[in-house]
Amino acid sequence: MRAYRVLTVLLGLASSIMAIHSSAFAQSLKDRNDALLARLQQVHGLSEGQMRAVREIFSASGYIGEGNPAITQHPLTPNG
Fold first, then answer.
1. Mean pLDDT, each 10-residue run in order, the chain (80 residues)
2. Whose CA is closest to 54, among 31, 32, 36, 72?
3. How far apart are CA 68 and CA 24, in angstroms?
4. Greatest C-alpha distance within the chain
5. Could you tell me the CA-to-CA distances from 78 to 24, 29, 63, 73 in Å, in that order?
6. How far is CA 15 from the centre of its chain?
7. Which residues neighbour 54 within 8 Å (Cβ) at sequence distance 6 or greater?
8. DSSP string covering 60-74, please?
């Protein structure tokens, strides 16, 4: 019975940590995507209409972006 209680507490803690992490990730994803879109517009000289279309694509997805920088490796970059 004690093992069941410990397991229940651990699962509750894990759920709480995941909820906190996902909300923090969502905010940082938005910030990273805003920076990505600004660079995209600057580098490629996209018009506001073109950027509006790109932003619509990004807003339709909850996870689109450059990936999780904590785990993503880009082998063709100076950091990879």
1. 68 57 60 88 92 90 74 65
2. 36
3. 13
4. 64
5. 28, 23, 25, 11
6. 19
7. 37, 40, 46
8. T-SS-SS--TTT---
pTM over 0.90: no
What 8-state DSSP symbol labels residue 75? T
What does 23-74 look like in DSSP terms, one character per residue? HHHHHHHHHHHHHHHHHHHHHHT--HHHHHHHHHHHHT-SS-SS--TTT---
Q: What is the dihedral of CA 62, 26, 77, 36, to 10 degrees?
A: 70
Q: Please count the other Cβ atoms lying within 10 Å of the Cβ belonging to residue 29.
A: 19
Kindly give, in sequence order, each residue whose CB lies less than 8 Å from that of residue 51, ignoring residues fewer than 6 positions away: 37, 40, 41
Structure tokens at 30: 């938005």
